[in-house]
Amino acid sequence: MPEARFWRENQARYNMIGHKCGKCQKVYFPPRDMCPKCRRASMGKMEKIQLTGKGSVVSHTTVHEGLPEFQMQIPYTMAIIELEEGARITGQIVDCNGECVKIGSEVETVFRKLGEEGKSGIIHYGYKFKLIE
Amino acid sequence: MREVAIIGIGETKFGELWERSLRDLGIEAGFKAMGDAGISGNEIDAIFLGNMSAGQLIDQEHIAPLIADYSGMAEKNIPAIRIEAASASGGLALSQGYMAVASGVHDIVVVGGAEKMTDVGDDAANEIMAKTADQEWEAVFGATLGSLYAMMARRHMNEFGTTKEQLASVAVKNHLNGSMNPHAQFRSPIKLEAVLRAPMVASPLGTFDFAPLSDGAAAVILAPLDIAHKYSDTPIKILSCGQAGDYMALHDRKSITRMDATVVAGKKAFKYAGIQPKDVNLAEVHDCTTISEIMAIEDLGFFKKGQGGKVTEDGSTALNSKISINTSGGLKAKGYPVGASGVSQAIEAVTQLRGEAGQRQVSKAEIALLHNIGGTGSSAIVHLLGRC
Ligand SMILES: [Zn+2]
Q1: Chain A: residue whose CA lies nearest to B152
Q2: Residues B288, B144 contacting (CB under 8 angstroms)
Q3: Any idea which fold A52-131 has?
Q4: Sign of torsion, CA B37 B42 B43 B47?
Q5: Which of A21, B85, B142, B198: CA 20 to 30 A from A49?
């Protein structure tokens, strides 16, 4: 049942829910059960945190040879984003031909279709990013 | 711990080998290595086989006993172990074989690496490569492995002023080295302008910034050093091995312009061998992309962070310069049968240290380094090899 792979992560992907370490306060996204800094001392102390989805671009690329599932979107822009809370994530930047993004550009999340799962055609959703004007 | 030597080497051609199966390739490399070591097969205690993804690439799992079987080893009932660390599978197979001999558990061990990339087509191959990054938090959003390396390149350019010409000069150098290697998949030198003009794959990286996805296999035979001379006039000693890991996803790493797994694996290898980066004469580093080589030569301590592009452009990493990097042509020109690449690197180092590299021979080849990475750098394995 391949679609379980997607809905299992939906809470985090739909709502930008991360984890904050109750020991050192570092914020993680996606959620982690163990803080890589505090390890055992963080067990049972990871707290859910709602992220704002706002951040800035650490690096970016325009993809011309993409995965089969993303062929229709080529060329598309991928970026690593550092969120306001400090966690870094990878996502697509929408409504942008690649020329408009720079390292340091401010972005925020938008909720979009990510793709379809093979033959079953189950659509899965999650965050992408758009530039803040 | 016993000292360990490589007493035999063998590899297939790399490339799009439509007529050859993974089984054929693995057997050919193994036979050649046995022939080189002058062993009959009777002496072999175990086989370690590096392979990234046979299950997806050729629909066959459990390939270590399969290749052992068709190599005539079935009735010897020896252990055959498949080792996986994505593109570092070959390097990890070498380190596991090394430890098995060093510990005294086994005497004669075959370390192989084999990969069949071209049965599935480019799209599927790229999809499988992307799974060596974090599937659920990178690939699912559209990140290819190439796009992740492209983001390292973009950031390296931003932080250190690395240029597209400097990236391209890695490809130009490796193709020139490959032109002198009869085993290389690509035997023609290329011009800087051709690299720069190539179609974009993921900006700023174009077609020529990437190693090809090849079919191929490589094998080496290991023995305890104290009996190595029985088999080889020029056994090559494994001085040390270091392995390290890191966050799976690129975005979680402390820096995307440095691979901490490489830094730590390199430091361990140098420490165990009691030598320093300046003692190394040649290195086969994991140039799956041009930016990978630039970061590797910095992270291994050969050059200062940020200088990798500049020193490649000014020729400091060319054959018989300050340090000879990727004399085989690297993954870029020798070819990139993914899970075999780490073993193939060892073959170039042994060839150089034996003084048998012909036109591309490094004049003072005493110590060689091998550097193999998995995914975007969540695994790194470094070996140091030396003449006895
Ligand atoms: Zn913590």
Answers
A1: A59
A2: no
A3: OB fold (Dihydrolipoamide Acetyltransferase, E2P) (2.40.50)
A4: positive
A5: B142
Model confidence band, residue A120 (pLDDT cutoffs 50, 70, 90):
low
Q: Which residue of B has its CA nearest to A5?
A: B136
Q: DSSP per residue over B21-48, as a string? A: -HHHHHHHHHHHHHHHHT--STTEEEEE
Query: Residue A8: its pLDDT value, please?
Result: 79
B120 touches chain A (CB under 8 A): no
pLDDT digits (tens, 9 = 90+) for B291-312: 999 999 999 999 999 999 999 9
What is the chain B residue with the closest CA to A60?
B151
Centre of ligand 1 from the C-alpha of residue A20, in Å: 8
Assign A1 a pLDDT band (cuts: 50, 70, 90).
very low
Cα separation, B207 vs B45, whole angstroms: 43
- Angstrom distance (rounded) from CA B17 to CA A123: 37
Q: Could you list which residues have their CB under 5 Å from ion ligand 1?
A: A 21, 23-24, 35, 37-38, 42
**Is B97 near chain A, with CB under 8 Å?**
no
Residue spans of chain B under pLDDT 70: none
CATH topology classification for B4-121+215-236: Peroxisomal Thiolase; Chain A, domain 1 (3.40.47)
Closest Cβ–Cβ partner in B203, B251, B252 for A61: B203
pTM for the predicted model, two decimal places? 0.97
Residues A94, A73: contact at Cβ < 8 Å? no
Domain with CATH 3.40.47.10 in chain B: 4-121+215-236, 128-213+239-387
**Cα of B374 to ligand 1 centre, how many Å?**
27
CA B158, distance to chain mean position in Å, is 28
Every domain of chain A and the residues it spans: 52-131
Residues in B closer than 8 angstroms to A128, CB to CB, are 141
A79-108 pLDDT, tens digit each: 999 999 999 999 999 998 777 899 999 999
| Distance from residue A28's CA to the centre of ligand 1 (Å) | 10
The H or E element spanning position A12 is helix A10-15
Helix ranges (DSSP H) in chain B: 22-37, 54-57, 63-68, 89-102, 122-130, 145-160, 164-179, 192-197, 225-228, 260-273, 290-299, 308-313, 330-334, 341-354
With beta carbons under 8 A apart, name residues in chain A contacting B201. Answer: 63-65
- Say whether A90 and B202 touch across the interface (CB within 8 A): no
Tell me the nearest-neighbour CA distance from A62 into chain B, angstroms: 5
Closest residue in B to A126 (Cα) is: B141
H and E: helices and strands count for chain A: 2, 8
CB B217 within 8 A of CB B335: no
Q: In this complex, do A65 and B127 lie within 8 Å of one another by their Cβ atoms? A: no
Residues B128-213+239-387: name the CATH superfamily.
Answer: Thiolase/Chalcone synthase (3.40.47.10)
Distance B10 CA to ligand 1 centre (A): 49
